[in-house]
Amino acid sequence: MFHRRQSYNDAVSLAIYFRPFIQIQKRNLVNVKFKWVKDTLLDSVVSSSVHLKATCTLVSLIGSNPESALPVYYLTRYRGQLGLPPDLKVSTFVRRYPNIFREFYRPDSSGTPVPWYKLTPEVLEVYHQEMRCVYDDCNVDILNRLQKLLMLTKERLLPLHTIDQLRWDLGLPYGYENELVTKHPGLFSFTKLPDDRVGLKLLVWDDCLAVSHLESKKSNLAETNHGELAFPIGFTRGFGLKRKCMEWLNEWQKLAYTSPYVDTSHLDPRTDVSEKRIVGVFHELLHLTILRKVERKNVSNLRGPLAMPQKFTKVFERHPGIFYISKRGGTQTIVLREAYDRGNLNEKHPLADIRGKYVGMMKKGLLDRSRGLYKKESKGSEELRRWQQRRAEFNYYGVKQGWMDLT
């Protein structure tokens, strides 16, 4: 009996020696729960940019128009991309920032005055800085971000609708399909999907890009005795980790790190190793964003393309030391903890600085508006009154008297 058991143990030891992955795969998913603890600094990061996406999108829409002006009904068509509350009208939002958007009126086909909006000279200058950054200074970097996003998927393919949801986070310009993708026919192609939607497919795999941020920074990270990569961890003050949770987390960090750019069909989704791979994918995805944060709803439909198991977004709750879930702005925003130090980005992309200028202008516009600074300067209501008066004269005399374009 002793010799038989010894032989069995030797066989198992040899199997583990030559295929250590077998041993790792046997680690079942541990049911560990962490409480959510408020982080005021990261909440302030999210709060400061609650309406930033809407402002930047509207500025891009108006700035990219040949006339640099658009009517309100045209802007309303893009409401879904703005992320505004359902009860907030686009026109109401735009009028909050008279130092960014200037309102004037033009008649429609029936002669009814319709509100139009153009950019103020100050914001137009910032918009031109943004375009120079996107198409000149950081063009290669932004193109690489789109490539890496597609490389994360199992088929190197994503619906345009899904990319649109992440467009602003990745720093892609408005109209990237025509302005960016079509200029690189050797890299991308548009594909018709089975559900008749249009998808974007990456044609060329780049091994130089298939390196995660964690792997590229591994020399600066804590490593286990066996060389497995560990994620940077940080908790909100007063988090109070239980001993059981701490022990599990330490063991989990020692598990093998799976690059988000390799095939993982061999992984059992019910193991901690698979969970570490999921965390690695979103760790990389957040590093592809400009501000290292993304709305949870914008990644919830990536389960199929990223080959994720059911309820994959639960990793955000299970790893509060890596991800912080902010509930500001009526939605859930996932923030990468390691990217911020006391509310400030550790590594700032040039686009982040430009967006900071938009934030400053938005704050100034709201403050000056509350002080009544724009009441005397605002021409919107006066122009509308003049339009109504002229239209009344037109109806009374039956003669068109000097219809003008008030800009």
From TrEMBL:
All residue ranges annotated as the PORR domain in the record: 37-365
InterPro entries xrefs: PORR_domain, PORR_fam
Signal peptide (UniProt feature, chain positions): none
GO MF annotations, alphabetized: RNA binding
Name this polypeptide is given: PORR domain-containing protein
Organism (species): Erythranthe guttata
